[in-house]
Each structure stands twice: as C-alpha cells, then as structure tokens.
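PROTEIN DESIGN WORKSHEET
SECTION A - STRUCTURE
LENGTH: 176
TOKENS:
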C-alpha cells in the first residue's frame, strides 16, 4: 500500500462534501446525499483518506449514547459511512483509516458501528455485541432483532458484558 494522507474534519467544505458523497454513492451503489444530511445534522466528524490527492476512503462518526439494562450509559463514537472507491477496494485504505480513527476518539467510552462485513471489522479489533439490541424511545426499549452491532474498546471503556441487552436512542433513518 502506498501513502494515505488522512484529514480529520468537523465540517466539510462544499467541495469535500461533494467528493465524499460521490465516493459513498459509488461504494454503496445508492444515493448517499440524504445520509450525509443526517450526518451533518448529527454533528458528524469525518476522516478522509487521500492517495495522490484523490479521495479514496471515508468514514464519519457521531456521538451517541448506548445504554445497558442496568443503567450504564456509554458516551459512544458511532461510526458511519465507511467507504472506499470501488476501484480502490481491497488495498488496505479503509483498514488504515479505521486504525487512525481509534486515535481520534480516545475521549469516548466506546466506539460502535453496525457492520456490513463483521469479519473485516473483527480483524481490526472490533467485537460483536452478542446480546439483544434495542432502540430507546424515552424510557421504552423496542427490540431491533434484525440489527447487528460491534464495539471497539477504548482506554475509557468500562467492563462490559457483551451478552447483555443494550440500547441506542432512536433517530430517523437507520437506528443502528
């Protein structure tokens, strides 16, 4: 793999926004502009990976709150929109970006994501949450049986029982 220049941005310029939307649209093979609007509204932080000046990989994270049944609330860096240009995939770009991501979120208690490829994330130290997943609406916990979540332990991660029930606050669009 050649050199990857990584930029952390709390706000994308219009040009960078367009590049990132185009990259994610190509990688996911679906329009990604609506998802980027949700990320913007949620205060997402972006990591952009460039090779020879070209944007080749992207991820973003938003702050969320995971909560266990015993009331433990975890300040969470929730990863979204991990993508690499189709013609640049399988070259280690996203892996490099995810490794760097962990360096940027040390002030959170845990990192989490909904995996598209659990084996890919497991190779990078992500662990599957084995317990049931729920979405919270106020005090009500609603099951989300078709969802998956993985966590990455950070320096401030407390002891966690990965078989226990866990919830995330409801949001429009994809809850997990």
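SECTION B - SEQUENCE
RESIDUE ASSIGNMENT:
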């Amino acid at each position: 793999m050649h050199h990857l220049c990584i930029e952390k941005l709390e706000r994308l310029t219009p040009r960078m926004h367009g590049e990132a939307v185009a990259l994610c649209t190509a990688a996911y093979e679906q329009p990604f502009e609506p998802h980027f609007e949700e990320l913007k509204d949620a205060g997402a932080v972006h990591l952009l990976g460039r090779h020879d000046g070209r944007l080749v990989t992207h991820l973003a994270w938003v702050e969320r709150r995971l909560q266990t049944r015993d009331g433990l609330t975890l300040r969470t860096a929730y990863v979204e929109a991990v993508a690499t240009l189709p013609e640049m995939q399988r070259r280690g770009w996203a892996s490099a970006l995810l490794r760097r991501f962990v360096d940027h979120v040390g002030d959170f208690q845990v990192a989490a994501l909904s995996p598209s490829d659990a084996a890919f994330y497991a190779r990078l130290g992500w662990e599957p949450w084995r317990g049931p997943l729920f979405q919270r609406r106020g005090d009500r916990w609603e099951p989300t049986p078709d969802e998956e979540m993985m966590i990455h332990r950070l320096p401030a991660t407390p002891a966690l029982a990965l078989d226990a029930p866990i919830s995330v606050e409801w949001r429009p669009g994809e809850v997990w």
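SECTION C - NOTES
The mean pLDDT is 95.
Strands lie at 5-9, 45-51, 54-68, 73-84, 110-113, 127-128, 133-137, 140-143, 150-153, 166-169.
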